[in-house]
Structure formats: C-alpha cells, structure tokens
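Lecture notes, part 5. Sequence design as translation. It can be helpful to think of inverse folding as translation between two languages: the language of shapes and the language of residues. The source text, in structure tokens, appears below.
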C-alpha cells in the first residue's frame, strides 16, 4: 500500500462521523451489557441468581438474534436509516422497560426487544467508519470505534450499578434510554451514508454477488470465533483467579481488571494503526493469534510454578492482546465484502463471536473445576494456535 501517492485527505467530517458512530455503538453496548449490573438489585428483591441472570441475558439474546437482519437492512437501505431507527428503538424500548420494571416477564420482553434494536449499531456503525475513512486511516479509525464496547460497559458500570441499588431498577434503566436518545439525535444531525456506486453500476461490476464464493471470509469468521475463547476466558475468570487462587482482595482484583480493560481498549487502537502502517489487516491478526497463544501458555506455566508476579503481568498482557484482533477482523471483512454485503457479513461475524462467547463460561468453568487454572489456561492456548493458520494472509485482498 503506497500512502505517499495522492492519499485521500481525512477531514473533520470524517472524524465527526467516527465520533457519532462510536457513540451509537456505546449506547448499544450500554444497553446490551448494562443489564448485568441489575443483578444485585434483582437479588435484593428476592429473585434467585439464576432468575436475575436470565433477566441480564435478555438484551444479549435479542442482539444475537437480530445482528444479521440489521446488517441486511444496512446493505439495502443504508447506514443512516439503520442507526437512527435502531437507536430510537433502543430509547423507546428501554423506556418501556422502565415502565414495566416491576413485572419480571414484561421486563424480560422489553429488554429482549431493546437488545434487538441495539444490534443495529454493530454493523451499521462499522460500515460508516469503513465507508468514510480511506484505507490508510481505516485501521486506526476502526480501532477507535472498537473502543465503544468497553466504554459502554464502563458507562453502565459507573451509572446503572449504583442507581439500581440506591434508586431502583426503573431509574437505572433510564441510563440506556437517555444515552440512546442522545445517540439518535447525533446520528440524525451528523451521519450520512458513505458514498457507494449505484446498484446498476454495482451489478455491471459484479459487486452484488455474495462474497462467500471462496473461503476468505469463512476463514476470518472461524479464526475470530477461536480467538474469542482466550478473550472471554480472561474477561470472565480473571477476578475469580486473582481472588480465589492468588488471595487478592476483591477491591484490588476489581481495580486491576478495570485497568486492564482500559489498556485493552488502547490496544485495539494500536492494532488498527499497525494494520495501516503495514498495509494489511490480517498479517497483524495472525501475529495477535501467535502472541495470544504464547501468553496463555506462559500464564499456565507461571501459575503452575507459583510465580505469581509474572503470572499477573501475563494476565494483563493477555487481556490486552486477546482483544486486539476484533477491529482487524471487522475491518478486513468490511473491505472484502464491499458496500452491498458488508452489513450481512459483519452480522455473521458478530453472531459467531456471540455464540462462542456464550459457551466460554460453562466450558472453561468446568475445565477449571476439573483440572485447575493452569491446565485450563493451557487448553485455551490451543484455540489461538489453531486460529493463526486459519487467518487468510496469503493472497489477501489489497487495501483500496
């Protein structure tokens, strides 16, 4: 990739599109993941942990079910309409959840609906960024956009968790409602559909044919699903490992986990910038897989040997490395699928990751129970080992 020759200029408009697309994704993440912070308040009402967990899972289930459909809508009708209608839907359905917060069945239904609307931001916001930013800045821009998930989780943790305990669940649910309403207004004022050829021109250029004629996208999907396993392993079990095995206090362990999330968000930006510099999305993705495998093996060995300080350092490294591939894969898929198929392709990508992530807590939890953390970490390391050769670097489509 030669960025020195007539590289398109990135203007303030590009950055404003990125900011608003990221904000829309933050609002979706706040809703989808924020319901988990209602669990203590639900338990204080006498609900069992399993019941509270069911309530918390509703937005994620709704999101997973609707990802491909929203992606298809973005392909057909454009990103602006999808982002506005989706964020408005999140705001209204979250307000509905406020109204029915005291009725468990209705609350679950409202959160399921809100999660389905929140899925609109996943593909559409990524398409806005990929469509407006030129190739030599697209990796960096998508890395910034990938910060939306930890930012949304952080917003929910800082607001919904304390509000649910002190003011009640209904008050806490106003947070995603208001956040989504603000995002909808920003999308209406700022977002425009990226330029793309007419369907007639695209038909003449054979751009309307589906992009799954070869294994390129399938290999990215499979590699990404495998790389979700170490990511969600360290996300899910870091606190348990630090407190249960190393004897840390809950406060100290929680502080470290929160700090590593912020480092992980910065790591996504760094991975995106690296992909711009080397002119490839997928070579860095393969590097991430290799480093993730080495880090998980190192974590297993140092934990087994009782080298606690080194093991904690490797946990921090693992938390940063295992999330670095997300933006790389997302960008590569958007570039390869093109403007008439990337919505559906990105929806398939996210659906596969959600499905894999949902299996990590029970499967790895069972492995930890039977084998202990060191062997469980070693087993997890096999996933990036398999993922690395799956990443289709040879013959990678050029960045345009």
């Amino acid at each position: 990739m030669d960025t020195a020759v007539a590289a398109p200029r990135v203007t303030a408009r590009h950055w404003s599109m990125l900011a608003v697309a990221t904000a829309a994704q933050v609002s979706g993440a706040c809703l989808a993941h924020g319901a988990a912070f209602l669990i203590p308040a639900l338990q204080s009402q006498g609900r069992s942990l399993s019941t509270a967990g069911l309530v918390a899972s509703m937005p994620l289930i709704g999101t997973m079910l609707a990802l491909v459909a929203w992606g298809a809508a973005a392909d057909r009708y454009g990103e602006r309409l999808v982002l506005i209608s989706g964020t408005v839907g999140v705001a209204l359905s979250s307000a509905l959840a406020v109204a029915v917060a005291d009725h468990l069945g209705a609350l679950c239904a409202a959160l399921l609906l809100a999660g389905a609307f929140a899925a609109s931001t996943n593909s559409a916001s990524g398409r806005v960024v990929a469509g407006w930013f030129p190739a030599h800045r697209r990796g960096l821009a998508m890395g910034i956009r990938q910060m939306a998930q930890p930012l949304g989780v952080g917003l929910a943790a800082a607001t919904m968790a304390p509000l649910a305990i002190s003011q009640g669940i209904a008050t806490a649910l106003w947070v995603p409602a208001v956040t989504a309403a603000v995002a909808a207004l920003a999308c209406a004022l700022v977002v425009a559909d990226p330029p793309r050829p007419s369907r007639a021109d695209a038909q003449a250029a054979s751009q309307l044919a589906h992009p799954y004629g070869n294994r390129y996208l399938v290999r990215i999907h499979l590699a990404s699903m495998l790389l979700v396993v170490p990511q969600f392993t360290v996300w899910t079990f870091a606190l348990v490992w630090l407190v249960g095995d190393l004897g840390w206090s809950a406060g100290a362990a929680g502080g470290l986990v929160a700090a590593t999330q912020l480092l992980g968000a910065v790591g996504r930006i760094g991975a995106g910038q690296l992909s711009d510099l080397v002119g490839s999305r997928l070579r860095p993705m393969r590097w991430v897989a290799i480093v993730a495998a080495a880090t998980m093996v190192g974590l297993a060995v140092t934990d087994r040997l009782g080298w606690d300080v080194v093991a904690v350092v490797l946990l921090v490294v693992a938390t940063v490395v295992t999330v670095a591939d997300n933006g790389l894969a997302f960008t590569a898929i958007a570039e390869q699928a093109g403007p008439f198929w990337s919505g559906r392709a990105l929806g398939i990508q996210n659906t596969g990751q959600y499905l894999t992530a949902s299996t990590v807590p029970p499967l790895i939890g069972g492995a930890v129970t039977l084998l202990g953390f060191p062997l469980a970490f070693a087993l997890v390391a096999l996933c990036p080992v398999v993922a690395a050769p799956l990443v289709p670097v040879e013959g990678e489509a050029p960045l345009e």
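The translated text above is only one of many valid answers, since several sequences can fold into similar shapes. Residues 297 and 343 are 36 Å apart (CA to CA).
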